[in-house]
Specification:
about 200 residues; alpha/beta; Rossmann fold; 5-stranded parallel sheet; 7 strands
Length: about 200
Amino acid sequence: MITIGLTGSIGMGKSTVAAMFADAGVPVFDADAAVHRLQASDAAVISAIEAVFPGSTGPGGVDRAKLGPMVLGDGAALKRLEAIVHPAVQADRAAFLERHAAAPIVLFDIPLLFETGGESRVDVVVVASAPESVQRTRVLQRAGMTPDKLDAILARQLPDIEKTSRADFVVPTGGSLDTTRDAVRQIIACLAARKTPLS
């Protein structure tokens, strides 16, 4: 099995690229989706977050609108949150690998791959990348997003130029969907032709 780590800064089209890999038959583990699911339905995770961040949960689990301001821009608070969530996500990841043990290629969609040292746990790193102007336009169209909030998010992420320089493959997402899809297909074909994973 070859494991791919897919990453890319906010607004770079990473989710679109992940969906293209899935459409091509590659099993995809979405770390963000796992976090959302755990924060909505895992009683142990929800109660632990409420204990550390009082008032951040409700009937539907973690209330992200309330939790967000408690951790955004606060490195220490973020680390406390990650200490709760990361072990649960790792268990979810292990279960995913068990389910897809026979797959020749699997993909892990991890927004903060480099920032958390995750590149050491995959065989190949793929980065979704678009011009900065495209990125900002996409993100600022999101409900509730402001330039200041975007800048705070970007401050936690490695610059795109550094991510692309450390990638094994870069998928361009600033043009047409066909161009992006072709790049995904080429990566899959390249990896399928390999006899063994990268070391």
